[in-house]
Amino acid sequence: MSGAVDLAGLAQPQRPPQEQPPAGPGGIRPVVAVGEADFEAEVLQRSMQVPVIVSIGAAEYPQSVQLDATLESAAVAAAGRWVLATVDIHNAPRIAQAFGVQSVPTVLAVAAGRPVDAFAGVISEAELDQWISGILDATAGQLSGPPPAEGEEPARDPRLVAAEDLMDAGDLPGSIQAYENILAEEPGNEEAGAAVRQLRFLVRAQDVPGDAVDAADAAPGDVDKQLRAADAQLLAQQPDAAFGRLIAVVRTGAPEDKATARARLLELFDLFDPAEEHVIRARRDLANALY
Length: 291
Known about the structure:
Blueprint: E1 31-33, H1 39-45, E2 52-57, H2 62-78, E3 83-88, H3 93-98, E4 106-111, E5 114-120, H4 125-139, H5 158-168, H6 172-185, H7 190-205, H8 212-218, H9 223-235, H10 239-252, H11 255-269, H12 277-290
Parallel strand pairs: 1-3, 2-3
Antiparallel strand pairs: 2-4, 4-5
């Protein structure tokens, strides 16, 4: 069903929005009555933050009234983890048409702007709880979450907090493992990825001898000494010197040494914001050295 529904046409206002109940913490209203005018804001945009359960029915159908009452209680109890959007099929026929509704009540889950699951008719409260739990499990980590209340700091991911605590305690290997566990569950977690790169560098740099730069200057053809010296210079907040040292190896070294130095350069680049001037300059110098 998720690939066959075109929701874009419902983004155009058709009538003034209905009066809505007051918002709770974070601006999330647990239950909203949705029409065609506010469908985009209350369903499509809201589903980028939390799943939206859309109940399509009508007041003259006892099953719709019964199901909506059960859903409303569950939505209030969920405290912003998901939102219930009720739709009157008579007032918003285009919404029902977009979802391909053939009978009422019909209930759909929308996440990241797309329908992900649906059922028609009435199911037991236990089955409904299980269905909603499945939606929350399926969308975990994929949505931005409820916005913070005004003046409230956004909640930190407890996994990241635990990894930071290990780092603050001096357990760098344990912190790296904690961040890698996050990446195993959520490969796109940018904060964890950046932390792993930084910590791996710090662990490696701890073993660099104090005379690494002098030793490398005395042996320009020794690629291992150049790598250690570059780490020492980066640790000393001398990125231009570190990059320049490795670019020199790429420019003049043996083929195997060139590949080693280039790989280390790319690794060091990832420790910085790619928009930083010294990174842009070093990438340009690396390209010139290669070609």
